[in-house]
Amino acid sequence: MGRNYKNYLLALLVASGLVACNKETSDPNALSVLDDNRTELQSAISGSATDVTTTTTGGTVLMGGGTDVDAAFRWMIQKSGGGDFVILRSAGSATSYNSYVFTDLGGVNSCETLVIETVADANNATIEAKIRAAEAVFIAGGDQAAYTALWKDTKVEAALNYLISTKKVPIGGTSAGCAIQGGLYYTAANGTIRSPQALANPYNSLITINRNDFLANPYLDKVITDTHYATGGGTTPAEADRKGRHVTFMARMVKDFAIDVKGIGVDEKTAVAVDANGTVKVFGDGLAKAYFIKRSSTTSNPETCVSGSPLTWNQGGNALNVYEVTGTTTGTGTFSLVDWTTGSGGTWKNISVANGTITYAAGTGGGGTTPPPSTGGYTSWIVGDPADVTRTTTAGTILMGGGTDVNAAMQWMIGKSGGGDIVVLRATGTDGYNSYINGLGTVNSVETILIDSRTVANLTEVETKIRNAEAVFIAGGDQWNYVNFWKDTKVEDALNYLRNTKGVVIGGTSAGCAIQGKYYYSAQNSSVTSANAIANPYNADVTIGKNDFLSQPFMQDLITDTHFNNPDRRGRLLTFMARMSQDDNIRPYGIGVEEATAVCIDQNGLAKVFGSANSAYFMRQALVQSTTNKPERCVSGSSLDWYKSKQAVSVYKVQGTSTGANSFNVSTWGSGVGGTSLFFYSDRGVFGTF
Known about the structure:
Distance between the termini: 57 Å
Shape: globular
Strand content: 25-35%
Strand order of the largest sheet: 19-20-23-22-24-25-21-30-31-34-35
Number of helices: 20
Helix content: 25-40%
Largest sheet: 11 strands, mixed
Number of strands: 37
Structural class: alpha+beta
Radius of gyration: 26 Å
């Protein structure tokens, strides 16, 4: 039956009253036609057709296929604020999910399914508007090749990324709908590959992987997902297990693009729910699992990954570390996609591949899995000697960009500590750093203290433990927790005593780095993107604290930012500096650090950059502060214009090395080794480099 004939027949049915076109209905079987003079769409709605606006919270659901996970859908409904739930698919029923979400689970204004089966449908302005109006979107199973072929580079893609990055609503998917969620994704464009085929030849033509050209979910930029992980995808147990093909996908990303790739595998009947802070809950039936896979170190690369030969990625039986978490109805098992180390309720395993044969065995991943002991009203974990020692220390600051921790920077810290007592501070999570730091060098002890309230932050015993430390490292997480719980407490006093009186290293990664400057981005409301910050420097999410928390040498009039390449945060750091210039009439400075990179500033202000492939950016307003050197336009409601003939902010970009050979002097802010000079600017809201 031709397309025009189907339109004609449907129009007759609507005219005769046999098919309802009015969307004011709660009938889950009602069909609607969306037409912008060129396309027909199969769709159905349950609930109210009147759009509502609710308060939403961003998040991502990765569901493994098979039976849908009720608890994960309820998680999405809660984050949607009870708004309008939209189901997307490229084939199949327009009604099957509607009654499930609207009637069985409840709590939403409506649930509408859109079957988007052509590129024309995907570019329909009415469909785009429906998606943009949603408070939650779930992508059904099917064929991920169809989703990428039909939806990529269309209005559907633009609408989904708007929901993710701007409106901040939960986006989820199952099976094929999960497979497309990562920044790296397996398209299956040439057909589905099984583990034995992939392991036998990593360059088999069935292995088709795209990267960073579709959805831009937070925390999934360098992540590739796989589904039906242990219960589908083949006719024999060996073929059904998808670990082998997933590991092969990861090997290709390391070999082809030098990406520090991560993987998330999900069994059927299981769902991974990632909240706005990067914390995962694993929902399921108590039997099936989720798998969080990372390289055992930044140097863990495949030994053999070439066309026509079996994969070898062995590294002494410890190529990859896997945190395996069983799903429960309440999501008790957790994992952090901020540090890829901290988890609860799971078990660490190792993966290795030798000549195409995969081994999955018990192992370690540097994560904390033991129940936390409680002491004196707070929680802490310790390895080593609990008796305090006194060592000769040297002061310094570590600014780490997040993602994979930098071993060389941690060893730099241990050296400055004189082998004394290392204290790790965090507001969430467990003891993941203890065994990691303890294994990098000789120390008396490593103790992690969980400071998750102002009450704990004002405990004398906690203050004493910090003051007795020979080095302190602040883990990743949510910097607003650190500001909210620790500012104006004994913890703040102890940290400033260590850095300025006792003379020890204070370091941090991700959120733990973000609070190091005398100016700091607090993320009190929500994490702002570069696009939103530069579009309005006074956006409510641009929350900057100043001169009221940590006080460290060489950090005056300076603000830091992390994950600088994941996503691109150059525009927002430029905006933070513009606000400092505009509001406080100072010459602002900034340090931006990419993932897997660390800036180690010694007692004389020499900043060595450690890492393998990424960089740090040392930024300052290019000219000495005066009225004429402020941004041309930095006002509420308008885009940032800080042009200055393309020379608003001078930048010295320094690539990290394993030895810290490249450096910059933050004492004089005028000399560097091994870097490249350039400028950042904003031309009426468009970020530029020169």
